[in-house]
Write a structure and sequence with these properties.
The structure is a homotrimer. The first copy, chain A, is an all-alpha fold and 492 residues long. Chain A has one domain (62-466): Orthogonal Bundle (Ammonium transporter fold), CATH 1.10.3430.10. The first copy, chain A, contains 16 helices and no strands. Chain A has helices at 8-15, 22-73, 79-106, 131-151, 158-181, 207-225, 246-263, 283-313, 318-335, 341-364, 373-391, 394-400, 418-447, 455-460, 462-466, 479-489. The radius of gyration of chain A is 26 Å and the shape is elongated. Chain A starts with 7 loop residues before the first helix and ends with a helix. Chains A and C meet through helix 2, helix 3, helix 4 and helix 16 of A and helix 1, helix 2, helix 7, helix 8 and helix 9 of C. Chains B, C: Pfam families: Ammonium_transp.
Amino acid sequence: MASLSCSTEQLATLLGSNTTNATAAATYICGQFSAVSDKFVDTSYAVDSTYLLFSAYLVFAMQLGFAMLCAGSVRAKNTMNIMLTNVLDAAAGGIFYYLFGFAFAFGAPSNGFIGRHFFGLKDVPDSLYDYSFFLYQWAFAIAAAGITSGSIAERTQFVAYLIYSSFLTGFVYPIVSHWFWSPYGWASATNMENLLFGSGVIDFAGSGVVHMVGGIAGLYGALIEGPRIGRFDNRGRATTLRGHSASLVVLGTFLLWFGWYGFNPGSFTKILSPYTSGNYYGQWSAVGRTAVTTTLAGCTAALTTLFTKRLLSGHWNVTDVCNGLLGGFAAITAGCSVVEPWAAVICGFVAALVLIGCNKLAEKVKFDDPLEAAQLHGGCGAWGVIFTGLFANKKYVNEVYPGKPGRPYGLLMGGGWGLFAAHIVQVLVIIGWVSVTMGPLFFILRKLNLLRISADDEMAGMDLTRHGGFAYDYEDDSVNIGSQNGTQNTPI
Amino acid sequence: MASPSCSADQLAPLFGPNTTNAVAAATYICNQFSDVSNRFVDTAFAVDSTYLLFSAYLVFSMQLGFAMLCAGSVRAKNTMNIMLTNVLDAAAGGLFYYLFGFAFAFGAPSNGFIGRHFFGLRDIPTSSYDYSYFLYQWAFAIAAAGITSGSIAERTQFVAYLIYSSFLTGFVYPVVSHWFWSGDGWASPTNTSNLLFGSGVIDFAGSGVVHMVGGIAGLYGALIEGPRIGRFDHSGRAISLRGHSASLVVLGTFLLWFGWYGFNPGSFTKILSPYTSGNYYGQWSAVGRTAVTTTLSGCTAALTTLFGKRILSGHWNVTDVCNGLLGGFAAITAGCSVVEPWAAVICGFVAALVLIGCNKLAEKVKFDDPLEAAQLHGGCGAWGIIFTALFATERYVNEVYPGRPGRPYGLFMGGGGRLLAAHIIQILVIIGWVSATMGPLFYGLHKLKLLRISKDDELAGMDLTRHGGFAYVYEEDGNKHGIQMRRVEPSGTPS
Amino acid sequence: MASPSCSADQLAPLFGPNTTNAVAAATYICNQFSDVSNRFVDTAFAVDSTYLLFSAYLVFSMQLGFAMLCAGSVRAKNTMNIMLTNVLDAAAGGLFYYLFGFAFAFGAPSNGFIGRHFFGLRDIPTSSYDYSYFLYQWAFAIAAAGITSGSIAERTQFVAYLIYSSFLTGFVYPVVSHWFWSGDGWASPTNTSNLLFGSGVIDFAGSGVVHMVGGIAGLYGALIEGPRIGRFDHSGRAISLRGHSASLVVLGTFLLWFGWYGFNPGSFTKILSPYTSGNYYGQWSAVGRTAVTTTLSGCTAALTTLFGKRILSGHWNVTDVCNGLLGGFAAITAGCSVVEPWAAVICGFVAALVLIGCNKLAEKVKFDDPLEAAQLHGGCGAWGIIFTALFATERYVNEVYPGRPGRPYGLFMGGGGRLLAAHIIQILVIIGWVSATMGPLFYGLHKLKLLRISKDDELAGMDLTRHGGFAYVYEEDGNKHGIQMRRVEPSGTPS
C-alpha cells in the first residue's frame, strides 16, 4: 500500500510567508498524516495476517481430510498404517520444513535454483516473510507428502515411508516451490529480473508445484512396488479391492473441499490490497472469485463423473464422485485466480474426463494406486497447468501479477504463446525433477529390500503385524455378549 | 461508512487572504483526507470480505455435517445413497445456483417476486454484491436441499432426487430468499419503498427461508412416498429403525453446530460497521451477541430434550439430544441478531418441546421421516419465526435494520402486533409456496413411478442395488479370515 | 491504539495571527483527524472481533475433537455414553458459564479470588469485555470438562457426570481462571496493583488453568472409582482394553490439532496491536510465532513418541503417536507466546517423555484412565508450566505483557528464578484447589453410591442399559440377515 503523500515543503509553500510559522505548521500537519499512514500499515498487517493464518488453518484441515480419505479407501486391515503415515506427514514435515525446507524454498536472497537462508527460521520475521507465511507454506508441503502416501498404500514398509516422506517434504518439494513461487525462482511469475518467456509460470496455488509433485512421486513409488496382491487376478483382470468405509471417504472429501478454500483463495496471502483505492473492486473480490472458480470446477467435475460413471458402470457411485470432485479441484488450483467462472466449468469438465481416462489407462498397464492419487493429482494437475496456459484472462493476470504490463496470457483468450510455452516447460521440468530424485530413491529402497512388505504381512494386514493390532473392535471379547447385542438391540 | 468530511471550501476561508494560497493549501490538506478516506474504504472491504468468506466456509462445513448426520441416521445398507445425495446437493447446487439461482434470488433491480439479473454471475462484482456474497448464499441454498434429502431418505429413487434437488436449489428456494432477503423483496425488512405492515419480516438468517422451506419440502416428499417398509408394524405401532452409527450422528451434529457460527453471525455479512464511530459497541458486538444467542438456544434445547426424553422414555439418549440441539439452532436462526441472550434460552426451551410434540404427532399420523427433518426444520423453524415476533427488542431491531426509526418490534417487548402479523404472513406464504411447487413435483414424480424404489430394492438396500456395493467392508473376503480378524486381538497380539 | 494526536492548541499558534481564523482552521483540521482516529478505533474493534470470534469457533471445534477421540478410545458398548457426556459438556457448560461461570471468572472489579459481576451477561458488553470474549472463554471452560470426562469413562453413572461437570465448568474452573487470567487475579501477570513475586504467572493459554485443572479432576475421579473391570488381571498385570475405532481417534486428534490454533494463538484475543506503529513486526507476528511454536512442540512430541514406543513395545502405534502429539500441545500451551521456536522443540521432546513416564507410573500403581487424560493433561500440563519458567525469553515476555519493563523471565534465558517460583506456586495451588473441591465431590458421590455403575451394567456396557441401545448397527435385525449382508459383497454384487 502506498503511503500517504503529505509533503511538508509543498504544504509550507502553500501556507506561505504570512503564516507565522509555515514550516512548522506544515510539519505538524504532515506529521499527523504520517501517523495515520503508519496506522494503516499496522491495520493491513493485522488484517492480512488474520487472513493468512486462518487460511493456513484451513489448509491444515486438509491433512485431516487426507487421513480420513486414505483410511476409508484402504482395507480395514491397513487402516492404522495409513493413518499413522498421515499423522507423521504433518509431524515430521513440521520439523523438516522448519529446519531446512522453508529455507530451500523461500530463503532470500538466493539463486534461481535453491534458497539458502532462514534455516531454522533464523532471521524470520522480516518485512517479506512472517511466521504466518511459514505456517502456510508448511501446510502446503505436508499436503504434497500426503498425496504420495496414498499411491503406495497397503504394501509399503513403514521405514521406507519415513525416508521418502522426509526427503520429499524437506528437499524435493521445497526446491520446486522455490522455482515457481519464490521471487528468485527461475520460472517464477514474480521474478524481478527475467521472466521465463517474458511471462513466468502462473501456477497460482500449485497444480504443478504441489499436486503434480505429489502425484508423480506416487507414480514412481507405485510403479516400482508393483500392484497389491489380488489387485489383478491370474488372467490379468482387475479386481476392485474396495476400501473399508465409504463414510470416511466422504468425510475426507468434504474436509478436503473445506480446506481447499484455504489452499486456493488463501494463496493470495494478502487480502487488503486495493487495485484502485476507494473502489469496491480490489483483491478481496479476486479472493472471492478464486473461491467461486474453485467451487465451480469441483462441482462440474463431480457431476461429470457421476453421469459418465453411470454410463460406464451402471452405478451411481459416491466414491467415484468424490474422486472426480477432487480431480476438479486439483485442476483448477493452478489457474483459480486468473480465469473467469465459466472457464472453471470447462476446467472441471475436462478434469473429470482426464481422471477417467487415466484410470482406464492405469488399469490397462496394471498400475495399482489404491487412492488413484497419481492419476488424480498427477493427471488432473497437469491438465490444470495446461488449462491455465489456455484460459488465463488478461485483466486478471495483470491484477494478480501487477507491475509488468503487457504480460502474456491465455492462448485461447488471445494472449499469445508465451504463457502456454512456459507452462509446458513447467510440466516437463516437474516430471524431470521428480523422476531424477524420487525415482532413484524408491529404486534404491527396493534394492535394499526396504520398500515392500512381505507377502505374509500383506495378506494379514500391516496393522496386525506392525502397528499393534486391528483398528476396529466393534464387538466385545466375549462372543456371546456381542451377538446378544446384535439381537437385543433393534427391538428397543 | 461516511468519509471524513474535509471540505476545501470550508477550510480555505479560515486560512483567509493572508495565507499565500489559501485555496491551494486547503485543497492540499483535504486531498490528503480524501486519500485517507479511500483507504478506509479499502480496509472495510477487506475486513468485511474476510469475515464473509470465512463465514461462508463455515456454512459450507455444515454440508459435511449434514452428510455425516444423514449417514449415521440411516441403516448401513443405504449409506452410500444418502451420502451421494449430500455430495450432489453441494455440487449440483453449485452449478444451478451459479447459472440462475443467484439471479432469481438477488438479481437487482427487480420486482418483489423474483430477481432477473446476474445470470451466470454476469456483472458481478457490483458495489453491493461481490463474489464472496455469492459463495455465502450458495452455501445457504445447498443447506435447504440437504434438509429435504433427510426426510425422504432410504426409499427414494436417485433420479427423483436429482430432479427435486435441482428444482429446489435452482428455483423454489431462491424465490423465497428473494422475497425476504433481497432489497427488492416484497416482504423484506430492507425494502426501500414499502415495508410489509410497516415492518417487513425479520428472518435474519433463515428459520423460514432456509429451514421451513427445506422442512416443508421434505414433508411433502415423505408424505407422498409413505413410510419405509417396517416402520409401522401390522397393528400400526411404530418401530424405530435405528441409524447405523451414533458416532457419525454426533460428528455431524457437532459439525453443524460449528457451521452454525457461520450461518447466524455470518448473516450480518459485514462486521466493520460502527453504530457510533469510536465506540466499543458496534456491529462486531452484535455479531458476538448473535453467536451467544445461537449457542444458548441450542444448549438449552439440548438439556430440555435430555430431561424430557429421560422422563418419556427412560433413557439418556444421545441422538435425541443431538436432534434437540439442532432444533434449538433452527429456531433461533430467525431472531438470533435481535433478541437478548435470556430470550434465546426461552427459544431453545420451547423449541425442544415443539420438536418432541411434532415427533409424537408424526408417529400418530404414521408419518415417517428418517431424520426428523420435517419436524425439526419445519416445526422448530416455524416456532423460531413466531418467537422473533414476540421477543425482538427495540434497540437491536433498530441497530440491525437501521435508517427507519420507530419500526415495530417484539409483541412481548411492547412493540405491538405488526411484526407478529408480518411473521404469520411469512409462515403462511412459505407453506403455500412450497406446497404449490414441491407438492405437485413430488406428486408428478410419484405418478410417473420415478419417486419410490421397488420393495425388493428397499429390503436389500439401495447401496447394493444402485450404488455399486455396501459402504463398509470391515472383514476380509473369506469367512475364515473374517472370524480370525475379529478374534485375533484378544488372543495373540502384543499390546 | 494511540490515536493521532492532533491538538488545535498546538497547531493554531503555528498558523499565527495573519491567518484569518487560525483557531478555527486548526480546530477544523484537528476535528478531521479526530474522525480519522475514531475510524481506526472502529477498525481495530472489527478486526480484533473477527479474529477472536473465528478463534473461538476453532476452540469450539476441539469439543468435536474430544468427542471423537473419546468415542474411539472406549469400547463400542460405551460409545453412546461418552459421546453424550461430550455433547452435554458443551450444552450444560453453555448455560452454566452464561449464568455464573463467566461472572466468577472475569467479573470486574473484584477481589483477587473470585469475580462477582456480569452474572447472566448483565452489563456486557463493556469496553473491555464483549460478547465474543464470553464465547471464547466458554469454549475454554467446556474443554476443561471434556478432559475430565475421558478419565472416568466407561464406568461412571450418568448422574454423577452431570453433577461434577456442572460444578467444574460453573465453579472450579472459573475461579482458577480468575486467579491467573483476570486483571484482578492474585497471580495474574496483568494484575495492576501487585504482581506475585514481581512477575505473576505466565500461563498464556492454560497449561495449568485448563489442562491441569481438567487432568487433576480426572485423576481424583479415576482414583476414587478404581479401574475398569478387566483392566488388571488377577495377578495384577495390566491388560490393554483397546478402544473400538482408531479412525475416530485419529479424526479426534486432528480436530484437536486444528482447534488448538484457536486455543493458543487465539489467546492473544487481539491481533491489531502494533509494537511500533508502521512496522512489519507487531502482535500479528507474535500470533504467527505462537502458531509455529505450537506446531513444532506437537510435531516433536509425536516423533519422540513414535520412536520411543517403537523401542519399548516394538510397534509403530498410531494411537500412541496421537496421544504424544496432544501431550506436546498441552505442554506448549502455557509458554507458546513467549518462547522461541527452537525451545518449543525441547518442550515437545520432554513432554513425550513425561507422558510415557506417567503412563508407566499409572500402570505400576494400577491407576486406570481410559483416555490417559490425567497423565496427558495433568502431567504434560505441569511440565509446560515449568518449561515456560525456564525458557521464556526477555523480549517476548515484555512484548506480550507490556507496560512493566524489567519483568522476570525464563531461568535458563538469564531471567532469574522469580518466574519459576511463581510457576511452582501455580502448580501447587492448582493441585490444592482441585483436590479441595473435586476430591470431596467425587468422594461424596462415591459414598452416596452415585459414582460407579453396577458390575452388570459395566459388563453389558452402558449403552444398552442406560442409553437406549448400542451405537452401531451394521447388520440387519435377524442373524440371517446379518450373515447375508456380510457375504453379499464378494458373491453377488455388481462392481
